[in-house]
Amino acid sequence: MLHQSITAAVSTSALVVDRVGVAAGKVPIVRDLSFRAEAGRMLAIIGPSGSGKTTLLRAMTGEVSYSGSVVLAGYEVRGLGPEALATLRGVLPQASQISFPLNVSEVVGLGLTGERRGRRHRHLRIAEALARVGLTGFESRVYQDLSGGEQQRVQLARVLCQVWEPLPLDGPPRWLFLDEPVSSLDIRHQVQIMRLAQDYARRGGGVIAVMHDLNLTAAFADEVLVMRGGERLAFGQREEVITAKLLSEAYDFPLEILKREGARSVIVPAGGEEAPGP
Amino acid sequence: MTVRKRNHICSLTAALALTAAAMLAPSRPILAEPARGQDASRVVAIGGSVTEIVFALGEQDRLIARDTTSTYPAQAAALPDVGYIRALSPEGVLSVDPDLILMLDGSGPQETVDVLKKSGIAIAGVPEDFSSAGIVHKVRTVGEALGVSDKAEPLALKLEADLAAARSEAEGQAAGTRVLFILSTKGGRILASGSGTAADGILKLAGATNAVADFTGYKQLSDEAILSAAPDVVLMMDRGGDHGAGAEELFSHPALAQTPAGKNKRLIKMGGQYLLGFGPRTAEAIRDLAQQLAAIRS
Amino acid sequence: MSDLTIPERAFLSLKWLGLQEARQGNREPLARAVIGVLVVATLAIMLASLATGPIAVPVLELLPHVPAYFLSALEGAPEGVTLRDWIVVMEIRLPRVVLGALVGAALAVSGAVMQGLFRNPLADPGIIGVSAGAGFGAALFIVLGNAALAPLMALFGIYAVPLAAFAGGLITTLLLYRIGTRSGITSVATLLLAGIALGALTGAMTGLLVYVADDQQLRDLQFWGLGSLAGSNWDKVLSAAPIILAMLLGVPFLSRGLNALTLGEAAAAHVGIRVQRLKNISILLVAAATGASVAVSGGIGFVGIVVPHLLRLTMGPDHRYLLPASALLGACLLIAADTLARTIVAPAEMPIGIITAFAGAPFFLWILLRRRGLTGL
After folding, report:
1. Do B202 and B106 lie in a common domain?
2. Residues of chain B predicted below pLDDT 50
3. What residues of B are in contact with residue C158 (Cβ under 8 Å)?
4. Domains in chain C: how many in total?
5. What architecture does CATH give domain A15-242?
6. CA-wise closest residue to C127 among C147, C113, C143
7. To the nearest whole angstrom, how far is the Cα of B264 from the nearest Cα of chain C?
8. pLDDT 10s digits, A161-196
9. What does the alpha-carbon distance between residue A152 and residue A134 come to, in Å, rounded to a whole number?
10. Rounded to an integer, what distance in angstroms lies between the CA atom of residue C222 and that of residue A184?
11. How far is CA B42 from the centre of its chain?
12. C28 domain-assigned
């Protein structure tokens, strides 16, 4: 069931992407991409629309087939079945519609699909997950009635339930994959979720997030991968990559970074008071 | 092995076990001594002609129920109705607690007949054949089933003679007339009787020609088929409506209007059970039909 | 219990029903309570149906003898029971009640599975083409059984039409599956649309057969289309039971997968479900069970939609409880409808499909109107 292709130099706490390509029919969407991410750090994947960010994510989570190699926790992702992958990583989608009137407790409980534990533990875990995302007391609320932000937090609680221990005693670190997790949320909830993701990384888990918002990326990511045209444009520590020059090149649009005294830098379109030009 | 695998195997075993149990179960019939019906005093008659014969034999006091098609004589209609001959409910028949069931050929459905057979009640099948010999045979069969063959024989002979006489009288009157028997015109579709049907049988006895004898059973006719059949007269069952209106409506059908029958508005309607029942009244029906055919041609 | 006050007793019984926990978000105790109630209700309805009919039969006195009958230890009627009463219960009513329970359970569970698979509370087993195909198969043999298909008819006898229905249902489903599956992945959207097309096609072909049918055949076709449990006997039970039981026992294994599927196919896979395998098994089980049901009882509608939906509103959408509860409620409802069908116009029998449609259609409309804010399906 588990095909092991552990390369000697790789430890089980890394995610190694080696010359990965993904194509839709004949059209390549991701080309020859390589990098390495470590657990305990948050990696943000940024780039303009159509750069293949989400496709790359889907290759890493095992959703689409790819050429090349993706090694997660020591295993080639391609060779793992859904049950095995579910024990190693959780995926938070962009938004989730649910067609039946489940309540919050039931949605979060779906994260425990792969679990064999008894009932008692389930409800404890669900309660803890809800507490983590700040939704204590929401157990009996109907998911479909919640706001977008609340729904996304419920989904995060579900994913956290699935990969509860970022650093389990009897296994490799677990990974959290986030696909534009905060695109449809207000700023307060954006920060809240990013904090939770960062916390997961701090506790030893691996976190990979496809991000739209450059400022959030700058605020929370430890490492950044910049993509353009399906290829890797840049990869490295946040400070090295988040530069006006590199970002402007990536997005083909003049951007500048405003430094403020004693406060966080802000990435904005370049130019003066008037509306930004091309 | 894992818990899931064990659950899988448990349920599969359960399913197989239940199936095996079901297979050992009864396809064998419940045994019962078939009673002798000749002394039966609680008789159910299924089939209009069967009921008429019972009355003709004077044995109606033994009847306790009949089917929907048994409407003659009036005393029969007064008996409880156990359902339509082709759609009998077994419980309905059993509920009147019979000790003999007289069943005309064509009673059904098969499942009902099977259950009734298992019940141990005497069942006498009465064969149906659309001919005068058939009628005579019916009388003898019913008579034997009721244990009154001594009364049935004279009745059978009488009917035999009567039928032969009616036939020869009809011979002259209606010879060669092409008759189209229409079962229904619902939805503008003309459903006609081909050969092998009761209508075909009575037409033969009356000396007329079935305009559509080239197929068996009841079929829907296309316009061309109607035209090439070229009937002189249309014959239909009288369902209680008035006669005049029927002809107007019927011959407004474009194809029928072009036939000899349609051009001259020749329509005959007669009671269904009377005309097609093939029972004691059939000789009278033959004479009646032949007379009407002769009248309508002149 | 007797020393508790009335409010305390009410509270305890509510707690026992699980209503309190349900309000806190955990609907499992409630679901279990509902199943318990349904088990009792099913047994009660079966008994009631056995006792209903034009002939008054002391059912309770007969029941103890039933196991002996099945173990072939009994010949004729048992002591103290008239043969007539025995026949009425064992050959007429009991097979009918058992068949009604099997078919009702099969249709309801199939509906629940299809709704879970298509993630739509309005899906029913017919959506994968089973009913349309079964109808066409039956029509083929009803109309051509005396002509072109006479040799086959002679070969299979009274099993010809049910077999044809079953085969027709499976073939149509297989066809539909092939159309909707590409590179090993089944698209439920394609299945849905192709199902509509295929339904129209089989409808047209059946219409063709109707056109050439004669009077008697038309009546048979019509009665078949409306569905009926009349003429139920042990042979029919025997032919349908193995398939339906296998399906009922196999379907609980789909619960986890169907639950996870609520999140969408991608997320269900992320959580550890083999989605394509789930689809394959679901479609196979539903096609087999529905085909077998339609084969022995004609086309009975609405049970597959009404039952799961009713239960989902009451006890939540957790398939681990929804599926067994659907089986029980489906059995109950169909037996009840059948009892009505054979008493309401006694001695004639109303086709059961009319009753389920009469009850089901308004309910269907109510579901549509009640959906949240009338926004999209």
Report:
1. no
2. 1-3, 22-35, 243-244
3. 110
4. 1
5. 3-Layer(aba) Sandwich (3.40)
6. C113
7. 28
8. 999 888 888 889 999 999 998 887 888 889 989 999
9. 12
10. 54
11. 23
12. no
- Render pLDDT for B110-146 as a digit per residue (tens, 0 to 9): 888 988 988 888 999 999 989 889 999 999 999 999 9
How many residues are recorded in chain C?
Answer: 377
* Structural domain range at position B290: 172-297
Name, in order, each residue with C-beta under 8 angstroms of A227's C-beta and a sequence gap of 6 or more.
A33, A45, A46, A47, A51, A52, A53, A56, A233, A250
Are the Cβ atoms of C342 and B89 closer than 8 angstroms?
yes
Phi-psi region of A32 (alpha: psi -120 to 50; beta: other; left: phi over 0): left
Contact list, A144 vs chain C (CB under 8 Å): 372
Contact A98 C267 (CB under 8 A): no
In a domain, C103, yes or no: yes
- C28 — contact with chain B (CB < 8 Å)? no
Tell me the chain A residues in contact with residue C267 when contact means C-beta distances shorter than 8 Å.
Answer: 91, 93, 96
Give pTM, 2 decimals.
0.83
Residue C4 lies in a domain: no
- Of C119, C273, C316, nearest to A82 by CB-CB distance is C273
CB B192 within 8 A of CB B260: no
Asked if the structure places residue C17 within a domain, the reply is no
- pLDDT > 60? residue C273: yes
The ipTM (two decimal places) reads 0.88
Backbone conformation region of residue B163, classed left if phi is above 0, alpha if psi is from -120 to 50, else beta? alpha
Please indicate, yes or no, if residue B53 is contained in any of the structural domains. yes
For helices C319-343 and C94-118, the axis angle rounded to 10 degrees is 140
Domain boundary among B168, B200, B227: B168
The reply to whether C90 touches chain B by the CB within 8 Å rule is yes
Q: Do A181 and A94 meet the contact criterion of CB atoms below 8 Å apart?
A: yes
Q: Do B25 and C234 count as a contact with CB atoms less than 8 A apart?
A: yes
Residue with tokens 């097609």: B276
